[in-house]
Amino acid sequence: MILLTKRNNEKFLVNHLQIQYIELIPETKIVMMNHDYILVRETTEEIIKKIMDYNAKVQDIHREISIENKH
Questions:
Q1: pLDDT-derived band at 24, boundaries 50, 70, 90
Q2: How far apart are CA 4 and CA 50, in angstroms?
Q3: Cα-flanking dihedrals φ and ψ of residue 8, to 5°?
Q4: Do residues 22 and 31 make contact, with C-beta atoms less than 8 angstroms apart?
């Protein structure tokens, strides 16, 4: 889950695996797999960075668990 900000400054979490695509209209519009959409304050670059950071964190946790299980 990544933390984003709606246009009204409300913070919310979104499952990045449910994002179908992102439009720049010029706002950032996130379209979900169910075709609902959300306008957010973050740029596309910021959203991609948040997704990359989240995925890296998950992979690190998985690697730690794998290493600990080998001992």
A1: very high
A2: 9
A3: -85, 15
A4: yes
For residue 9, the 8-state DSSP code is S
Contacting residues for 44 by C-beta, under 8 A, at least 6 apart = 22, 24, 28
If you search the block for the tokens 């979104």, which residue do you land on?
A: 14
pTM (two decimals): 0.81
The answer to whether the beta carbons of residues 3 and 49 sit under 8 Å apart is: no
Query: Which has more confidence, 64 or 54?
Result: 54
Under 8 Å between Cβ of 6 and 20: no
Amino acid at 33: M
Question: With contact defined as beta carbons under 8 Å apart, do 42 and 30 qualify?
Answer: no
